[in-house]
Design a protein that fits this description.
By secondary structure, the chain is α+β, with helices and mostly antiparallel strands. The chain has helices spanning 2-48, 70-78, and strands spanning 57-58, 68-69, 120-123, 126-127, 141-142, 160-164, 178-179, 191-192, 205-206, 209-210, 220-225, 230-238, 241-244.
């Protein structure tokens, strides 16, 4: 009897990690399927909007309640908020409530989403020496895919559109400096918003801004490119710093 128990214990020790790896692979596959469908939704949106990719957000010039994001713009095309949830992430997209404090009334119909709860982020990188203060002020320039025209994207199959990112239930302010703690990111988790001049892919966050896709899948992340196809990118910790990931040129819409 003890021999049988010992054999079962040995088999369990061998098989349980295999089962865990298989479950993780299934979640990774589901995530990539989501990204492909989101990518197709972006291309459909672009065809209906003068061949222009969605902006990261709109309405922020009114107030926070009226600001809405690229997921809200895509919702008529993807039909399901579930496609913006990665099965390996522990946060699903949440929605804004009316600022008057009524806990049961959503801000809009359909309700507007909350930016820090996004599992995926659109490419909205910027260049300019003073872009940490306000990336929408001169001399900053948005050189990513968000808001670009299809004609302005030089190499669609090589240029990143949307990637895995680290969501948060809380509205985070961001932490100055370099950090590999996802909690150090600011609330703009719906976008990859690094400043080209200060980018450092060894870290998750530089001055609160995402530096690359968030590696939640077996030492890497997944990305959908600007032509709609999806791929896996290796990015793993080597000691305390990340290696792998992407080159800055892969984020630039209009390349030489």
């Amino acid at each position: 009897m003890l021999v049988v128990i010992a054999i079962i214990a040995i088999l369990a020790a061998i098989l349980f990690p295999v089962f865990a790896q298989a479950r993780e692979k299934a979640r990774q596959t589901a995530c990539m399927s989501n990204l492909r469908q989101v990518g197709l939704g972006v291309l459909q949106y672009s065809q209906d909007n003068d061949e222009t990719f969605p902006l990261t957000e709109r309405g922020g010039d009114v107030d926070d309640d009226h600001e809405y994001y690229w997921g809200d713009m895509l919702n008529p095309y993807i039909k399901s908020w579930g496609l913006l949830h990665c099965p390996d992430a522990d946060q699903q997209v949440a929605f804004k409530l009316l600022s008057n404090g009524t806990a049961s009334a959503f801000q809009a119909t359909p309700p507007f989403s909350i930016q820090q709860t996004y599992d995926y982020a659109i490419n909205d990188i910027v260049t300019g020496a003073t872009c940490d203060a306000n990336p929408d002020d001169a001399p900053c320039s948005h050189i990513g895919i968000a808001g670009a025209t299809l004609a302005n994207v030089t190499y669609p199959s090589d240029t990143i559109l949307i990637v895995d990112n680290a969501p948060s239930a809380a509205d985070t302010a961001g932490v100055a400096g370099n950090s590999n703690d996802p909690a150090s990111l600011n609330h703009s988790r719906h976008e990859i918003n690094f400043v080209v001049e200060e980018r450092n892919t060894q870290y998750i966050s530089v001055n609160g801004k995402s530096q690359d896709g968030f590696p939640r899948h077996n030492g890497g992340f997944q990305a959908v490119m600007s032509d709609g196809h999806a791929k896996y990118k290796h990015r793993a910790l080597a000691g305390t710093l990340y290696g792998g990931g992407t080159k800055t040129i892969e984020w630039v819409a209009n390349q030489p």
